[in-house]
Amino acid sequence: MQVTVKGKQLDVGDALRSHVTDTISALVAKYFGNPLDATVVISRDAHLFKADIQVHVGRGILLQSYGEATEPYPAFDDAAEKVAKRMRRYKRRMRDHHGRAAEEAPLLARKYILEAPPLDDGDADDQVDSLDAGTDAAQAGDEGHQPMIIAEMETSIQTLTVGEAVMRMDLTDIPALMFRNRAHGGLNMVYRRPDGNIGWVDPAGTGVQGA
Questions:
Q1: What is the DSSP string of 113-180?
Q2: Using an 8 Å Cβ cutoff, are 51 and 70 in contact?
């Protein structure tokens, strides 16, 4: 497995680079036989050091974690422990899903990141209204209110069960995940609610559910 270690706002020395590479390699090899690659970014923000870890352990399976501390080693170790916990918790389920995923081609979709409009009179609510209005105007062809596209990428929409989608969202530590429901083939979404529970949007079932 290739491990890439990067520094942001700091120089990653040989000792820290070796510690990160050895730890990640040993950790992933303990749970997965053929991992793809891993990227670790160590950054500094004022008095805090932050560590971001991304590990591709299989086709379409990405683990992410984040840690911070007042020193770079504890920041990385914190993030690495979070990855380890997720690997221990989901190893069996991820292996089962990986076997099925190899038989099902993912649905490809375009993914965009839109620039947030500036605040109007300091009112945060106006920012949301302005973004909604800008999106509607763009759909209607009004170039004067079209939000700027910061990034355009291609993403894959995997075919999953609801349980697998919740697992994938938890593994990647993202707030929402769109997927193709294996039960009926329609597009669904799961998302993390403010109360900590998981919401599930199922247009085919004409309902929004909370878990």
A1: EEPPPPPBTTBHHHHHHHHHHHHHHHHTT-GGGPPPEEEEEEEEE-EE-HHHHHHHHHHHT-SEEEEE
A2: no
Tell me the whole-structure pTM to 2 decimals.
Answer: 0.54
Residue with tokens 């109360």, as numbered in its chain:
195
Q: Are 130 and 117 in contact (CB under 8 A)?
A: yes
For residue 40, give the nearest of 90, 94, 70, 78 by alpha carbon.
Answer: 78
List the one residue out of 76, 77, 91 whose CA is nearest residue 35: 91
Indicate the pLDDT class of residue 105, thresholds 50, 70 and 90: low
In sequence order, what are the beta bridge partners of 154? Answer: 110
For residue 209 the two structure tokens come to 């559910």
- Of 44-48, 165-169, 203-207, the least confident: 203-207
C-alpha distance across the termini of the chain, in Å: 37
Residues 68, 75 contacting (CB under 8 angstroms): yes
Q: Are 62 and 171 in contact (CB under 8 A)?
A: yes
Helix 14-31 vs helix 72-101: angle between axes, to the nearest 10 degrees? Answer: 30
- Domains belonging to the chain, first-starting first, are 2-101 (3.30.160.100), 107-210 (3.30.505.50)
**pLDDT at site 131:** 43
Question: Residue 138 is encoded by which pair of tokens?
Answer: 């763009």
- Helix 72-101, helix 162-172: angle, nearest 10: 160
Look at the block and give the residue holding tokens 């090899």: 29
